[in-house]
Amino acid sequence: MRIVVLAKPVPDAGQERLRNDFRMDREATTEVINGNDEYALEAALKLVEASPDGGEVVLLAMAPDHAQETLRKGLALGAASAVLVTDPALEGSCALTTAHVLAAALRELSFDLVIAGVDTSDGGGGVVAAGVAALLGLPYLSYAARIEPSDGRVRVRRITPNGYEVLEAPMPALISATQALGAPRYPTLKGIMGARRKEIVIRTLADLDLAGARARGVEVGGAAATARVTGSRPRAPRGTPKVVQGSPAEAAQEVVTFLAERRLI
Amino acid sequence: MTEALARVPFWWLAIPVFWGSVALFALEVVRHLRVMGAVRPAAPFRDVPRRLGAVLRYAILQTRLFRDTRAGLMHYAIFAAFVLLSTGVASAGTGGLVEAIVAWPFGGAIWAFLLLARNVAAIAALAGLVYAMARRLVTRPARLTLSRSVVAILFLIGAIVAAELGALTFEAALYGPLPGAVITNAAGSLLVRSDRGLLLLLFGVTWWVHIACVCTFLIWLPLTKHFHVASSFFNVYLRKLEPRGALPAMDLEAEDATFGLKTLADLSWKDVLDGLSCTECGLCQDACPAYATGKPLNPKALIVGIRELTTEAELGLHLVPGPSIGHARVAEDDSPRPVVSGLPLVDHAISFDAVWDCVTCGACVEACPLLIEHVDKIVGIRRNLVLEESRFPAEITTAFRAMENQQNPWGQPASARLDWTRGLPFEVPVVRDLAKAGRLDEIEVLYWVGCAAAFDERNKRVARAFATCLHVAGVKFAVLGEEEACTGDPARRMGNEYVFQMLATRNIETFEKYGPPPIVTACPHCFNTLANEYPQFGGRYDVRHHTSYLASLLASGRLATRDPNAAEAGQAEARRVTLHDSCYLTRYNEIVDAPRDVLRSVGSIELAEMSAHGKQTHCCGAGGGRMWMEETRGTRINAARTHQVLATGAPTLATSCPFCMTMLRDGLADAGAGDKVSTLDVAEILAPVAISGRTAGSKSGELPVTRAER
Ligand code: SF4
Ligand code: SF4
Predict the structure, then answer these.
(1) Closest ligand to B299 CA?
(2) Does a structural domain hold residue A260?
(3) Cβ of A188 and B252 within 8 Å?
């Protein structure tokens, strides 16, 4: 089983700082692999570990060159190698371009499954995975809470607001992963040390075949972005917290009253 | 051969019997040594004078055993009898050579004195043995294990001592008083008229029972807890001399090594010796707050577990080293049994849960009469679980990630590190700004705020109080602000050496950039790590805890306190305050007086000590990274301590550590005493009455932010 995980390096949540042009100040923050993508990676690693004929997990990202360091964190968890598409011309690309670029990179890889987090903590659009699936003509199984491959097919339990559905599709397929799949592991020291020697393949725009995208009139880069952020405002600070004190029974009563007063229960 | 020896039937047989037992004993010791040779090396040798001092204090005077006077006396009687009686056995085993030599000067006075001492010690030891036995059978303190071998050994020692007394008595009855042996002479004089044949028989029997029991003891010794008779001197001599709060250094680049302690083979030979030397006295168990609150952790069980793994591994070793000879039960190849030495310590010497129950409070280490180091081993096991197996309570992942990515276990952005200064009526200078302005050398002291005081609401107030004290004293201080990162203490104690070293290197780089002045911190964990552990990475700084620093400001007169009686009539009555000693400040770093000195400087305070104070303090439950874990097993450690706090009846609890502050406040709230007892850091008690020593009598340092808070 070969699985490609779309792993986006993002600023660590809670630390983001915006520049004047409303783009992320990547210098000022620590970068990590997008939280949901880590869940995707964990699910992928478990599938490969459970697969009787082995296999491997490959990370794929489109990001600035320094993202290599962040990708090593994913390699430390057990991915075999990574592909990083990086090109100054890509800076400021929108979701549509990103989907085209990732699709182009995936065309050069062989895989049974592609797994990506349902969305990313920086952009939060949640459309890239679906876009990639559409561009590659892959079955798209979203909001996965469980992934069960067997005999060339894959079955996914998809979370819905009222319960879940069971989806099935032939492989290769693209799955978007939720946190219900299980928390990511913590890297071992051997994993961290070993990751230093693992391969990160660097691809630039020149290496990719983006003819399909161009044929549809899609261009790369910030200037060509189909959507851009034009304003941003931090959330208004929350009200002062109410601290409940007293014995557990009294405290519980107080909490219940508080909620009941606001018709929350 | 001496005249006395010649009276003993078959006395010459004692020579081969004695030396045979000595040889067996030696072979058994060699077998222990071979296991010690097969595990990791260690080099606890430097600083001979301090080591000899430790032997005198802990092994010969046995100060730690006298913390319980009766038990101490009991043990000392048996110890003395053991040493003294062995002179008699040695004499028999050498055909009287020892006696001949010792009895030669001063007309035999020394030998006579020895006999007197042997008499007295034997009687005392018998009393001690009765006490030891009674304790195990009647009062049964939980810390003592009652096993068949323990009882058998006690009887064996009893037999040795009784037979010695018997033999000397019958000898005196038969041949007249022996010089010096006043007690047995007196007993013998009562028997002079008995049947001589019977006396001869009894003399022979008791003399030989004595020798036989001693030889049995000798052979049995290395296989039981009584091996400490021989090993304790070495174990104490080879003690850890590094600061107790410094966990062993670790090379993370050694790629083919096992990281941390996985199996017996990863222990150092000193750890194996610890296991072999443990007396199973259970003093560590008694001191352990995790054990006392019903958790699976028992430090004694860990050390005994190491011994058991050692002796099992030894089953593969021939008694007489070499491939061909040996007895049937053993393996062919004469090597420590790999099956056993390959068993993980987790599940075989200690359970997984127990490994994570430890608050690294060090009470066990402080209690152990043999100076065994439990904490280093437990953290060593954690290191292996974290670094190699990624097996740890899931809840600490968040803290690990936060320390790695945000450089603090709270997961707060560095930009919030100065939030605590808001609202202070004076400016708190930041080192980077002073450096830019070329005013670096103005800084008298670098205040290391620590993550707790930077991010925890309650502890921010402690930072404000301490800064106020510095300001009032006119101390030119500065903070690192955004450049400060967690010292790594929680990561290191939770076994995550990788994250610890990452943080330590980062902080040391920051320090080196500024060539730091003395560093002061209000957190005992930061203090311990900065002072005791950063030297492992080349970071040697002058580090003080804020209580010591405040005490010295008061002592030097730079800081004074306003007389509360003069200032506020209502405050005239003495306020009772109890002080909770932090493990990392007081037990690990022996800072006992400083917080008390500060409190005493606040005139109206009466200190109400808890029974567990000073180096015998009781943990709050937050050390060893337990701050970041839920306490689900047993009852809560902070509740146990809260109980002790409440027992003093003092309305104020003084702390000197941000974690203790949090845990005990929670404990008091849980006990419904949150508004009866206010918890205040020592600095918060001082700040409201602190005045500049230079302008004593003028303005007070009291600020709205430092008022007593519950
Ligand atoms: S350090 Fe404290 S909690 Fe840990 S084993 Fe020793 S006494 Fe128990
Ligand atoms: S480790 Fe020390 S304190 Fe604990 S039982 Fe053994 S000798 Fe006693």
Answers:
(1) 1
(2) no
(3) no
Average pLDDT over residues B383-411: 93
Q: Which domain does A86 fall in, by range?
A: 2-224
pTM, to two decimals: 0.88
CB-based contact A200:A84 (threshold 8 Å): yes
Nearest chain B Cα distance for residue A219, angstroms: 35
- CB contact under 8 Å between B387 and A188, yes or no, is yes
Does residue B643 form part of some domain? yes
How many contacts, defined by CB atoms under 8 Å, are there between A and B? 42
Rounded Cα distance between B142 and B283, Å, is 10
Region of poorest pLDDT, from A22-36, A140-154, B688-702: B688-702
Look at ligand 1, atom 3, and give the residue with the nearest C-alpha: B358
- pLDDT score at A58: 96
Q: Whose CA is nearest to atom 8 of ligand 2?
A: B281
- Of A230, A214, A229, nearest in space to A97 by CA: A214
User: Which token pair is B572?
Assistant: 């005239």
* B259 contact residues in A (CB cutoff 8 A): 189
Residue B254 in any domain: the answer is no
Q: Which of B392, B425, B452 is the last residue of a domain?
A: B392
For B353, the domain range is 264-392
Phi, psi torsion values for B646, nearest 5 degrees? -65, -30
H-assigned helices in B386-438: 396-405, 431-436
Question: Does any CB of chain A come closer than 8 Å to the CB of residue B259?
Answer: yes
Q: By three-state DSSP, how is residue B658 classified?
A: helix
Judged by average pLDDT, the poorest of A52-56, B301-305, B507-511 is: A52-56
Share of chain B above pLDDT 70, in %: 93
Give whole-number Cα distances, B605 to A111, B600, B685, B703, in Å. Answer: 74, 6, 10, 20
- Secondary structure, 3-state, A178-192: CHHHCCCCCCCHHHH
Rounded to an integer, the average pLDDT of A165-180 is 94
Q: Indicate the angle between helix axes B457-473 and B658-670, nearest 10 degrees.
A: 130
| A86 neighbors A67 (Cβ within 8 angstroms) | yes
- A228 Cα to the center of ligand 1, angstroms: 57
Q: How far is CA B283 from the centre of its chain?
A: 10
| Domain identity same for B68 and B166 | yes
CA of B282, closest atom in ligand 2:
5
Dist CA B5 CA B15 (whole Å): 12
Phi, psi of A176 (to 5 degrees): -100, 135
Q: Please, which residues 364-403 of chain B have a Cβ atom closer than 8 Å to chain A?
A: 386-390, 392, 394, 397, 400-401
Cβ contacts of A30 within 8 Å, gap of 6 or more: A11, A12, A15, B405, B406
- From edge to edge, which strands make up the β-sheet containing B543-545? B477-478, B445-448, B519-521, B543-545
